[in-house]
Amino acid sequence: MGLKIYLNGKLIDKKDARISIFDHGLLYGDGVFEGIRSYNRLVFKLNEHIDRLYESAHTIMLTIPISKIEMIDAIVRTLKANNLNDAYIRAVVTRGEGDLGLDPRRCHSPTIFIITDEIKLYPKELYENGLEIITVPTQRNSPEAVSPRVKSLNYLNNILAKIEAINSGVEEAVMLNAQGYVAECTGDNIFLIKGGRLRTPPPYAGILKGITRDCVIGLAKDNKIPVAEEMITRHDLFNADESFLTGTAAEIIPVIKIDGRVIGNGKPGKITLQLRKGFSNITKKDGIRY
Ligand code: PMP
């Protein structure tokens, strides 16, 4: 039995899951999406992801034609149909099929699809030894142009930064904002720890307000670790005791070198590992069961 895909209300075989080449999601990146995860049949932070999806859609004036409850039901149906215990879930809403012009009024019906698949994890060594990253020249999108809070189908900004990282032989890149402050990585948020204090850029630095990020901030507070959402410079990063990235796919991944500067003692830090453990416990018990 092949993978089943949810497409506009129906579960269909992957090979039959097709959308129009006139879909504005494809022609213009006009659409929004979420990357979600399930752990042992518990969908992690599903309500938070659904809220962010609908907020992204609202900002780009895309009316999702099904309710949040129907969207949750569609995700659960897709997971059940594929009998996946641990899954990566991609929920996508595009402007739909239109003509070759930009005008979204020509798109009469948004396209909704949901893919649930096996989760592809980062290599274990990266979690054990930590990641080396670099700052790249491509700035994060200015919030005055397109808000990074909108998780849109147009990821070219991040892809360019990712290419620059790969060209330099590393897997992730730190992107700065137009003021030169640290924003985030291409698919992850960034944190540092200095003197026992956890610091991460605020949403107004021009970042995607990551759901893993928010979860880690909550976890730190529960563990009486002081947290500050404040502007961070590269100097702050270089001189941190610890650093890590957060994201739905990456979870919490330690960073041990940035732009050639060793972070702390060059090994995943104590607080990073404490937070990783706490996070792993939450994923085991929180979530919507299917
Ligand atoms: N920033 C960007 C640009 C991302 O694409 C992602 C992954 N969706 C994140 C941060 C992390 O967000 P989350 O924890 O919600 O997956």
Classified in CATH, the superfamily of the largest domain is D-amino Acid Aminotransferase, subunit A, domain 2
Order of helices and strands: EEHEEHHEEHEHEEEEHEHEEEHE
Backbone structural class: alpha+beta
CATH topology of the largest domain: D-amino Acid Aminotransferase, Chain A, domain 2
Tally of extended strands?
A: 16
CATH class of the largest domain: Alpha Beta
Unreliable segments (pLDDT under 50, ≥5 consecutive)? none
Give the overall form. globular
Radius of gyration: 19 Å
The percent range for helix content is: 25-40%
Biggest beta sheet attributes: 9 strands, mixed
Number of domains: 2
What CATH architecture label of the largest domain applies?
Alpha-Beta Barrel
Q: What fraction strand?
A: 25-35%
Q: What's the tally of helices?
A: 8
Distance between the termini: 20 Å
Q: For the residues shown, what is the average pLDDT?
A: 97
Brief characterization of the structure:
This protein has helices at 24-28, 46-59, 68-82, 124-129, 156-167, 211-222, 234-238, 270-285; strands at 4-7, 10-13, 31-39, 42-43, 87-94, 111-118, 131-135, 172-176, 182-185, 189-194, 197-200, 227-229, 242-247, 251-258, 261-262, 288-289.
Question: Care to describe what's here?
Answer:
- This protein is α+β, with helices and mostly antiparallel strands and 290 residues long.
- The chain has two domains: 114 residues, D-amino Acid Aminotransferase, Chain A, domain 1; 160 residues, Alpha-Beta Barrel (D-amino Acid Aminotransferase, Chain A, domain 2), CATH 3.20.10.
- Strand 1 and strand 2 form a beta hairpin.
- The longest helix is centred in the last third of the chain and has 16 residues.
- The model has no long low-confidence stretch (mean pLDDT 97).
- Bound molecules: 4'-deoxy-4'-aminopyridoxal-5'-phosphate.
- The site of 4'-deoxy-4'-aminopyridoxal-5'-phosphate (PMP) has 14 residues, from helix 6 and strand 13.
